[in-house]
Amino acid sequence: MDNAPGKKMLESAQALIRKTAEKMKLDEETIKRLIEPEFAHEFALTVKMDNGKKKVFKGWRIQHNSALGPYKGGIRFHPETIREEVQALATLMSIKCAVAGLPYGGGKGGIVVDPKKLSKTELERLSRAFAARIAHVIGEDVDVPAPDVNTTPEIMSWMIDEYQKIKGFKSPATFTGKPVSMGGSLGRTEATGRGGLFVLQALLEKLAKEGQTLTVAVQGFGNVGYFFAKLAHEAGFKVVAVSDSRGGVYNKDGLDPVAVMAFKRKKGVVSGYSGKKVSNEELLTLPVDILVPAALENVVNEKNAAKVKARIILEMANGPLTEEAYLALSKKGVTIVPDVLANSGGVTVSYLEWVQGKAGYWWSEEEVNAKLKEMIVRAFTAIWDKSKEKKMPLKQAAFEVAIERITSAMV
Ligand code: GLU
User: Fold this and answer.
1) Lowest mean pLDDT: which of 211-220, 249-258, 334-343, 359-368?
2) Domain architecture of the chain: domains with CATH
């Protein structure tokens, strides 16, 4: 299937690595090592459906770079995922883990499937089949998978159970994002949203904009968007718009994300909650201070970038801005916090889960949140300082910091 967004995302990630590395005067072979994945596992999974018939699903686990440590990254279940998208996301994980200061390389997995069309038992069989297929190429010191788009703690619990059965021993640090009852970490579910809020607050402090009531529009009401909206609302931001895949709601007086979620649980959608109905496209161009794309990639592109009114964009999804949109908006003076920093709270708490799993010793939620804050603010400060020192946007600065860290660990 032709999927331009995934291909474009890979091209942009590779082009940015090349551009940054060339500026840093790295040699061609080093640049190739930074671009090419170390392993790309591609497979077909055969799963028995509830009607007794067998169905084949295409899947990947791509292990991009392991200079800094074991590969780390989520597994995505999406009907339109393709190899290039999984590779792009694996590449971005190498950059993200380096930006976040974690002892990990980057990896990503994907299955071409619409999980909403599967029954729970079919979903479990598919998840177990995936874990069984990758069991011989992952491990707590090899490659540590986690959730991504459409994958949940429950899916991680099926995967780790399957993995441990095959291996014949317990290994809680081989998957992260597990339910707390199976060795997960407190605070992991909210971590990506919470980390994004910490980064936003650190940025506003630098921009001397704290203390004002700033308006926020959040696209996406899944794990990332919902918790970001909820925590931002609690922190005093005015969340005026939210959306899910079927549309959104805008209320200039502000929304309470918890109440919107209660509505969505009842009705299945956020659209229809009290306020004005807006499409996902309209949400991106609302008159707000801060835009938070927290769903899928390439939603802000050359077609709508000129209409974006926000002065700050926090990339909570992976790759929500195309290269063209990013350049055009940066030129206009919009501050864009790149995905590899903004959404790194998820993998940072995955790291804390991994440390706890390896040690067999678990921290309280307060301890986890405090460690997340310290680590992500440290990551932000390094990128901010680099961007000031080199007079470059945060995204370029993030790539430069990451490439410095990765290459310094390459022999
Ligand atoms: N899927 C998340 C991401 O893209 C989390 C990865 C992880 O925790 O390993 O950052």
Assistant:
1) 211-220
2) 4-11+27-182 (3.40.50.10860), 191-342 (3.40.50.720)
Q: Which of 10, 172, 158, 135 is nearest to 77 (CA)?
A: 158
Q: How far apart are CA 298 and CA 107, in angstroms?
A: 21
Distances (CA, A) of 36 to 31, 32, 94: 9, 6, 12
CB neighbours of 132 closer than 8 A, spacing ≥ 6? 162, 163, 166
3-state secondary structure 301-363: CCCCHHHCCCCEEECCCCCCECHHHHHHHHHCCCEEECHHHHCCHHHHHHHHHHHHHHHCCCC
Looking at the CA of residue 72, tell me the nearest atom of ligand 1: 9
| Token pair for 260 | 């919107």
Give the predicted TM-score (pTM) of the model. 0.96
Pocket test for ligand 1, best of 223, 350, 356 (most atoms within 8 A of CB): 350
State pLDDT tens for residues 216-247: 999 999 999 999 999 999 999 999 999 999 99
d(C-alpha 396, C-alpha 409), whole Å: 20
pLDDT at position 211 is 72
Say whether 108 is catalytic: yes
- Residue ranges of E strands in 133-196: 143-147
Task: Pick the catalytic residue from 108, 178, 264, 373.
Answer: 108
DSSP 73-100: EEEEEETT--HHHHHHHHHHHHHHHHHT
pLDDT at 257 over 70: yes
The DSSP code for 300 is B
Number of neighbours of residue 9 by Cβ within 10 angstroms:
24
Closest CA to 130 of 31, 52, 45: 45
CA distance 24 to 377: 25
